[in-house]
Amino acid sequence: MVTIACDALSVSLGQRRVLDGLSLTFEPGRLVGIIGPNGAGKSTLLRAMVGLLPPDAGGVTIDGEPIAQVPRRDLARRIAYLPQGQTVHWPISVERLVSLGRLPHLAPMSRIAKADSDAIERAMARADVSQFRDRIATELSGGERARVMLARALAVEAAGLIVDEPLAALDPGHQIDVMELLRRETEAGLLVIVVLHDLTTAARYCDRLVLLNHGKAVDDGAPMAVLTPDRLREVYGITARIEQNEDGGFVVPRGRVA
């Protein structure tokens, strides 16, 4: 299990302050959705939480330890990170690509052991890409590639999984499959943090939503407590039909605020 905490975290990209004093704690066994309009700081937050962006102020801890002090290999074993828009530039098989998720567990020049092979098989099965194992990764469709890259992240078998827009390029059926997969991961005790744009998906699957705007957390809580008409008007500049049902709720944008 893993807990990630941001303490007054501020991050700039160039001259622009992208995150501004965020204090958030993410605990295991939860599916946390990060939502907000374009440019709100969602991807920057994820990158900062895995140590890819240095803070201007504040910091990030993993299980109470400053992330900057955690050895990179150890961090990669504890948190699996899948950024958005992943591309593949080399013609390797899907199975070989998924196996790259085991690199944090391997010593230099070592070979994949049975435990690694088993983890790779489990990851491909969970992401529903086992049938692609012998295909060349560069020949996959966008949706197929997205699922393979998710399998690579799952192959790490980390206690925390951070995923940036995993539903892009997926058809509706596979969007459902991915979100149900992420739910199962939390039921097994993992911490899963996911950036989402579809508000109905966020309402239906997430335990908690963090709503970002201009680098600040303007709301944080249960999905239907965050997705209110006033918040959607204020942050997204939209009106929407919002209803709660047995699936958690749905949000249908109606139009821009005049």
From TrEMBL:
Q: Which CDD domains match?
A: ABC_Iron-Siderophores_B12_Hemin (cd03214)
Where is the chain membrane-spanning? Answer: none
Residue stretches making up the ABC transporter domain: 4-239
**Do you know which Gene3D superfamilies this protein is assigned to?**
P-loop containing nucleotide triphosphate hydrolases
- What keywords are assigned to this protein? ATP-binding, Nucleotide-binding, Translocase, Transport
* Molecular function in Gene Ontology: ATP binding; ATP hydrolysis activity
* Origin: domain of life: Bacteria
Q: Which SUPFAM superfamilies match?
A: P-loop containing nucleoside triphosphate hydrolases
InterPro entries given in the database record:
AAA+_ATPase (IPR003593), ABC_transporter-like_ATP-bd (IPR003439), ABC_transporter-like_CS (IPR017871), P-loop_NTPase (IPR027417)
- Quote the Pfam families the UniProt record gives: ABC_tran
Cited function: Part of the ABC transporter complex HmuTUV involved in hemin import. Responsible for energy coupling to the transport system.
What family does the Swiss-Prot or TrEMBL record give for this protein? Belongs to the ABC transporter superfamily.
The protein, known as: ABC transporter ATP-binding protein
Give the organism, scientific name.
Sphingomonas tagetis
